[in-house]
């Protein structure tokens, strides 16, 4: 289920870039890992995955625009758009290169926005707004959150019945705001139990995004990683403090 989503996105991006006349140009896309300070500044709290070294932000620069993607497999990369549009998306590193590049290029074409992670107090401002948005749009629903985002957990646990699923073994079994963090083995049951899925956009990089796009219940993505993909595929995203 997952692979066709990424393949579709890559193929359609290639068509867009070809029509824009940029696919064949020798335009370098450079992805680099950002330090915690560069990426998110000094947020309130010290348990963000970036701060604990679990993930990094890959940043692509295209013309005068930037796009980012969270990933646990990172490094430098530079190539043409053609190579990125044709590379096999068979690991997290390659998918992060493609997704960060997609965000930067689509932003430069005016087809997406909010591709740069918020900084400092941004997460603390965004999370309560997202909780209010969910209450207004969906009501008092049962939520399963996919991915560990501490400020969002705090805001959602205060207002909703919440389950949390994460891939990080250091998080699994621990409690956050009275909610036990579950592992991937519980994902299917947690998703089935939910009336609303709130999923990190980095699911597109780890190739699980298809597991959370369902016909029978809504999904709301958060974060900058999924910016261009959400706009192109018509997915709902909330990320009000990003740039």
Report on this model:
With 243 residues, the chain is α/β, with parallel strands linked by helices. The protein folds into two domains: 2-108, no CATH class; 122-238, Rossmann fold (3-Layer(aba) Sandwich), CATH 3.40.50. It has helices at residues 2-19, 36-40, 81-86, 92-108, 122-138, 150-159, 187-193, 227-233, and strands at residues 29-33, 56-62, 65-71, 77-79, 142-146, 161-165, 175-176, 179-182, 196-200, 219-222, 236-238. A hairpin with a 2-residue loop joins strand 7 and strand 8. The radius of gyration is 17 Å and the shape is globular. The model is unreliable at 42-53 (pLDDT under 50). Pfam families: DUF364. Residues 132-212 form the Putative heavy-metal chelation domain. InterPro entries: DUF364.
Features:
seven-stranded mixed β-sheet, DUF364, alpha/beta, 8 helices, four-stranded antiparallel β-sheet, Rossmann fold, Putative heavy-metal chelation domain-containing protein
Summarize it.
The chain is of the alpha/beta class and 243 residues long. It has helices at residues 2-19, 36-40, 81-86, 92-108, 122-138, 150-159, 187-193, 227-233; strands at residues 29-33, 56-62, 65-71, 77-79, 142-146, 161-165, 175-176, 179-182, 196-200, 219-222, 236-238.
Q: What Rg is obtained from the alpha carbons, in whole angstroms?
A: 17 Å
CATH topology label of the largest domain: Rossmann fold
- The helix/strand order is HEHEEEHHHEHEEEHEEHE
> Total helix count?
8
Mean pLDDT: 88
Please provide the count of β strands. 11
Largest sheet: 7 strands, mixed
Q: Please report the distance between the alpha carbons of the first and last residues.
A: 31 Å
**Spans of 5+ residues with little confidence (pLDDT < 50)?**
42-53
Determine the strand fraction and express it as a percent band. 15-25%
The number of distinct structural domains comes to: 2
Instruction: Assign a percent range to the helix content.
Output: 25-40%
Architecture (CATH level 2) name of the largest domain? 3-Layer(aba) Sandwich
**Strand order, sheet with most strands:** 7-8-6-5-9-10-11
Shape: globular
Which structural class best describes the helix and strand composition?
A: alpha/beta
User: Which CATH top level class of the largest domain fits?
Assistant: Alpha Beta
